[in-house]
Structures are given as C-alpha cells and as structure tokens.
Amino acid sequence: MDFDFSDVQQSLQDSVKRFCEREYPFEKRQALLRTEAGFDRAHWATFAELGWLGAGLAEEVGGFGGGPIENAIILEQLARALVVAPFLSSAVIATQAIARLALPEQRDKLLSPLLDGTSIAALAHGETAQHAFAPDLAAKATKTKAGYRLDGRKVFVLGGQAADVFLVSARDGAGESLFAVPAHTPGVERVNYHAVDGRRVSDLTLRGVEVEASALIGAGGDAADAIDYALDYGVIGLCAEAVGAMDAALWITRDYLKTRKQFGVTLNTFQALQHRMADMLVETELARSMLYRGIAALALENVLERRRGVSAAKAQIGEAGFFVGAQAVQLHGGIGVTEEYIVGHYLKRLALVRGLFGSSDQHLARFAECAAGRNEEEAAGLRDFRPAPGLRRRRTRRR
C-alpha cells in the first residue's frame, strides 16, 4: 500500500504549513483567543481563496475533487499550529452532511457561501453532556402551514459561536430530520463558551423556532445516514488533528531534552528519558497508521465496516494522543503547565479530542457492536449459500 502523497497533496500540505508559520505564531494565537470572535475572519477568507474550504468535496458539488485525505492534511497542519478556527465544524462536518443529503438546488444555495467563506455552518446534533455520536433525539419538529416549528436543546455545538447557519437535527413524523436554521432566527438562543483547548462552542435552545418548508434538508433514514456519515467524517478529522498535535509535541519535547541540562549534561543523555521518547514516537506513528486506516474506512460501502474502522481509529488515537501530550508536559517539568508555553496547549487539544464525538470506551463498544453485526451478516450469507448447479460437495473417505 502506497502512503506517499501525490504532488497535489504535497503542495497542499506545504501551503498550509507555510500559512501557519507565517500567519499563526503562538503569540498571535493566544491574542486571538482573547478576542470576542476567538478567530480571525481574514484568515477564514484566506482559507477560501486557497481552496481549503472545498478541498474535501467532489467537483460535482462545487469542491476541488478531494476527499478525506485532503481534509486530514489540512487539519493535521492546522493542529500543529493549534489554529483555532471552525474548519472541522464547517468545512468538514457541515459540508459533508449537506453534500450527501440536500437536493441539488438546496445544495448549491447552502454550499456556495460556505465554500467562498462568506458563511459558516455548524451541525447541532448532540443533546447530552457526554457528546455521544448517536444520541436519542429529543428535539422535535412539528409541521405547520408555513413549514415547521422546532423545539429542543443542543449542547456543545462545535463552532457554534461563529456559525451563521445551524444544521439542526430533530424528530418528526418521518423520524430523524435535518433542518438549515439561520443563527439569528427568532427563538434560537445561543450560549457561547470556551472548550478546554480554547475553541468556541455553544449550547442552543430552540423555542418555537419557525422555519420554511425549504429549510428541511432531508428526513427519515436518509437524514440519519447522512448525519452518521458526516459525524464519522468529523471523527476522522479529529484524529488528524490529534496526529498533528502529537507529532508537534513529540519534536518540541525532543528539542527541549537536547538543550535542557541537569547534573551537567543534557536530559537526552538519560536512558530512562530516551525510553519515554521512544514510547511517544511509537504511539505517534501508530496513531498515524490508524488515521490512514480510518480514512480508508470512510470509502467503504458497508456501513458496519465503515463504523468499525472509524471507531477503531478514534479509540486508539484518543488514548495515544492523551498519553503523548501528558508525557510531553511531564518531560518539560513545571514550564510544561504554563499558559505562556505551547506544549501544555497541545495536551489541552488532545484532551478534547479524546472525549469529543464519543470517548474511547464508547467507540470500543461501537467497534464490538459493528463487528458482531458483521459476523451475523456473514453467518446469514453462509446459511443462504447454495452450491451452483453441477457442483457437488467433496466427501472425504474414512479409512
């Protein structure tokens, strides 16, 4: 299997890396976190100009013909610089849900402003503090003469503060449905706050929110499948962020151990610390391998196999990322926990990744359920198997 990037993918990686080095030093990041918006809209416009906002979408829906590997390349480099922007929530999760579910006329209307950077979207799906990937929806959509009335509550909406439009999941007569709701629609109450890594999230309360019939993007099984796929896509995006943060923390720690002296020698001469660095390297490379496995799983037609591959990646990378981040902080000593030094902020990002969109325990349970379901499918296939005409079962003669 070839894991080398194509020339186009390598060029994309280089462009994101150059942007982060030039436009996003750590000091500027810290200053942006103290602003009301929490990120730079000028940077977002640059993302659009460079084609990053549509890098993971097919050309037929207005994208640049890429897929999850292109999004992973971007997210890994953004995470290395700890960029705080709603890329994952808008350019990955929301766009995938729209591209997979919306009718062509809806798709063009919703995607165009997202891809040109004039609008930002966020999926409002989770309803519990556990941020599980498959919540039991309590939000309701009631049919009215003019369209629909939405009532319910959504928590920890990633990118919610910056969102101009929310993709709200709710239950109606057809089952699970997805609606495009402008953020300033009467009845939408938004409470913004910081996640542990500094990015902005929101809790939404919808009280009698009236929307037109055209706000319905999809209903029934199609909506549930599209949301499930978009969240799987988002989980792999989180895994890419983790790999970027892990790799950056690893090499920053290596450089620190090569310069910090104790007992007259640099710390990297101590064998015990060499072993810990080796463990960090192994976990980082294993995480990268699992990321590629998860990316490949997104292309699988069998839903159980896709979920199993995604959950395997999330369970492994979530724990490995937290391990590498914690080791990096500990090997730095006291400076590792200061706000002024970058390595502690990698741990915060990795701590968020560990629990967002399902914990490692939840994904291990999902992995087991999908594996059991797949085994049942295979067993059913064997039960239904009939030899082709002319074929006879070979008998072994007993001696």
C-alpha-based Rg, rounded:
23 Å
Name of the CATH class of the largest domain: Mainly Alpha
Named at the architecture level, the CATH assignment of the largest domain is: Up-down Bundle
Going by helix content, strand content and strand pairing, the class is alpha+beta
Order of helices and strands: HHHHHHEEEEEEEEHEEHHHH
Helix content: 40-55%
Terminal-residue CA separation: 47 Å
Contiguous uncertain segments of 5+ residues: 385-399
Could you say which overall geometry the principal axes of the C-alpha atoms support? globular
What does this molecule look like?
The protein is α+β, with helices and mostly antiparallel strands. The chain folds into three domains: 7-119, Orthogonal Bundle (Butyryl-Coa Dehydrogenase, subunit A, domain 1); 123-218, Butyryl-CoA Dehydrogenase, subunit A, domain 2 (Beta Barrel), CATH 2.40.110.10; 222-382, Butyryl-CoA Dehydrogenase, subunit A, domain 3 (Up-down Bundle). Helix content is 52%, strand content 16%. The chain is built from eleven helices and ten strands. It has helices at 7-23, 26-33, 41-49, 68-80, 87-101, 104-115, 220-259, 271-297, 303-332, 343-355, 360-383, and strands at residues 121-124, 140-143, 147-158, 165-172, 175-182, 188-194, 200-212, 216-218, 261-262, 265-266. It has a four-stranded mixed sheet. Helix 4 runs parallel beside helix 7 (220-259).
